[in-house]
Amino acid sequence: MSDVVDVPVGDTGEDGPRRRRVAPYVVAGVALALVGLFVILLTADPSRDETARSPLLGNLAPDVRAVNEDGSTFVLSHRKGSWVVLNFFTHDCVPCVREHPELIDFVAQQEALGVAGAEFYSIVRDSTRDEVDAFFAERGGEWPIVYDTDYEFVNGFGVAQVPETWIIDPNGFVRRRFIGQVTAAGLSGTIQAMRDGAP
Length: 199
Description:
The chain is an alpha/beta fold and 199 residues long. The chain is built from 5 helices and 7 strands.
């Protein structure tokens, strides 16, 4: 005859009560993590300038070339002597559309500086000339457009997503990389600080 042991209802043995004591802490931890994630998402500012590291920073810019709007060849190394800003974009990129008014303001600020102003170029990837023409016709802006049809710029600078903006100094060295949307104030302030000797 075997012994019969009564087990209280809801108790599966020694681990049951222990599991019930830990569960509320696990649930609370997950809830706190979710709240933290929501706070980060709600307070993130998509318009602030995000700098990013790159092995190109502090080194000579890649000697890349692409096609100008008029069909001539654009050679980046020929732009030495000026501050150069390269903005990679496509016509259907939502952040590119959002930052476009800022780029118009930035170009106007630099033109007001005369020969001391930075040169600004849009580097187009994966958009046709007709699509880019329609983009600018609808939103305004006048500056040189460079078509990176052979992906020399994209590969040379390691651009994975757009928009992405790079600043190159008059000696041809890469000084800054911004991933995501930029602002006119952020770009102008960064360039002015570097003109004044900031690293």
